[in-house]
């Protein structure tokens, strides 16, 4: 065999190996994207929008959240805690008719307290608590975000209808947090 043929075979083999490696990396990245989309659901789309459509930047952020909070194990609530949180939520809902703003404020505090009781970061560190909740309760974390935004809006901000919608959205997270950790559907990884 001539030297030219040997060089050509080596070059073709190198191109094939590099092509296979590129395809393998691309497939692995896609699987990671699908996994993050499945795990975070609407939170994935929100992160992409926050990064001006840059899916890779959003995926890096979400992967960092998983790394930081993925190992968090939720603590089960004691029966007395369950009763207390349920009573507080019922009172906030009943209070809404007479004082919607105060009821939403109570719902915001209640969600923060409930998340802390379940083992999430303290509500005084809202962004960190929200980040951890997004890893474990991605389908409902928007409700907490909405309640918090409305609760901290200026007096002339949201109307009664938006406050009602926020309370309804927040209730989904409340109900999810009230379930025992082993009673919730498994989140995709």
Automatic annotation (TrEMBL):
<feature type="transmembrane region" description="Helical">
    <location>
        <begin position="6"/>
        <end position="25"/>
    </location>
</feature>
<keyword id="KW-0812">Transmembrane</keyword>
<keyword id="KW-0472">Membrane</keyword>
<keyword id="KW-1133">Transmembrane helix</keyword>
<protein>
    <recommendedName>
        <fullName>Secreted protein</fullName>
    </recommendedName>
</protein>
């Amino acid at each position: 065999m001539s030297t030219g043929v040997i060089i050509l075979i080596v070059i073709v083999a190198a191109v094939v190996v590099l092509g296979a490696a590129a395809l393998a990396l691309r497939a692995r990245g896609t699987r990671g994207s699908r996994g993050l989309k499945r795990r975070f659901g609407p939170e994935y789309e929100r992160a992409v929008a926050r990064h001006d459509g840059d899916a890779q930047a959003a995926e890096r952020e979400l992967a960092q959240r998983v790394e930081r909070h993925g190992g968090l194990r939720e603590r089960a609530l004691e029966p007395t805690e369950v009763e207390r949180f349920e009573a507080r939520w019922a009172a906030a809902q009943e209070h809404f008719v007479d004082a919607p703003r105060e009821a939403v404020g109570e719902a915001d505090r209640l969600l923060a307290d409930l998340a802390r009781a379940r083992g999430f970061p303290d509500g005084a560190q809202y962004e960190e608590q929200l980040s951890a909740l997004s890893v474990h309760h991605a389908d409902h974390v928007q409700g907490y975000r909405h309640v918090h935004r409305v609760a901290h809006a200026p007096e002339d901000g949201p109307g009664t209808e938006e406050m009602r919608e926020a309370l309804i959205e927040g209730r989904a997270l409340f109900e999810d947090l009230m379930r025992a950790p082993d009673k919730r559907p498994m989140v995709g990884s």
